[in-house]
Amino acid sequence: MPIGLRRARLPLHFLLAAESRRGGRKPQSQPESEREGASCELPARRFLQPAPRARGSRTGGAALSPRARTSVPPSPGKCTDGLGEGGDGGVGATALRCASSPCPLLPRAALCPAPSPPLGSRPRLAPCAVPAARRRMLGAFLVAWLLGGLCSPEPAVGVPGPPCQAPQQWEGRQVRYEHSSGRNTRALLSYDGLQKRVRLLEEKKALIPCKRFFEYIFLYQDAVMFQIDQATKLCSKIALTDQWDPLDIPPNSTYEDQYYIGGPQDQIMVQEWSDRKPARKFETWVGIYTVKDCYPVQETYTRNYSVTFSTRFFDIQLGIHDPSVFTPPSTCERAQTRMMSDAC
Prior knowledge:
Largest sheet: 11 strands, antiparallel
Function: Binds anionic lipids and gangliosides at acidic pH.
Family: Belongs to the ependymin family.
Oligomer: single chain
Order of helices and strands: HHHHHHHHEEEEEEEEEEE
Strand order of the largest sheet: 6-5-4-3-2-1-11-10-9-8-7
CATH topology of one domain: outer membrane lipoprotein receptor (LolB), chain A
Strand content: 25-35%
Low-confidence stretches: 1-6, 29-52, 54-112, 149-156
Organism: Sarcophilus harrisii (Tasmanian devil)
Number of helices: 8
Protein name: Mammalian ependymin-related protein 1
Radius of gyration: 47 Å
Subcellular location: Lysosome lumen
Shape: elongated
């Protein structure tokens, strides 16, 4: 058998394609019905193996070659394999030929598969894999945040430790409200818890006709109180029968609540304590103190299930500026033994 016939065992369409490329001739055009049928007859392997997307720009599009930027896009209606804008798999041509596909019953991924990635490049993750990765990352951050909150050294709200220790010596101002009379009394306050003494100087905030203002000095170690008229310096010396009640939180107090005073960007956390005994007795004292530095904010006393008086504290300064304020004036050497009235 001649040698030329031995080499002609390849399929006939391969020989015709090779001959057309060698001679520069175009294959004869087919009728319109045959072209439509041929465009739908795609290899089965293309349907079963979706090609991975090529790596592109930051926006997720396929990378265009220099030739693609100047080439003319193919005519619509033709499903050209692997050709984009100018024939190299661009995104615009892919969307164009998928929108005008002659095979509406076939999936678009089968008719117009994505171009293959360049050699040596890593395929991008599928779009559905990105949300899953983000969900896993969010779950890891959530677990770390919860563990960090549980292991935080700061005490949680509503689970306090023992009562704080209030300062022993300080000066400030107070407003005492008498619930029986409905009157407020403002005064300067000097508190010395170490030597169990208190000095109150009533403030003259307004000109009230027939109103007398006093200064009070409480010396609990001597069990005596001095009442001095600020205008006439008359003095009264009265024996103290009440026990020393320091401005602090007793160790056996019952925790009531913890909350903020103020609003956003300007607030202070305080704790509320009382002498209430669960299932045994109601409270007769309620004290509100700041969590930081344990400054007194308010104290309320009740008797016979009704409020007697409440006192608010503010403008607190640590230390005693002038210890001589606890020394009675010389007029108290001839003091009387009865309380003076604040009316004329």
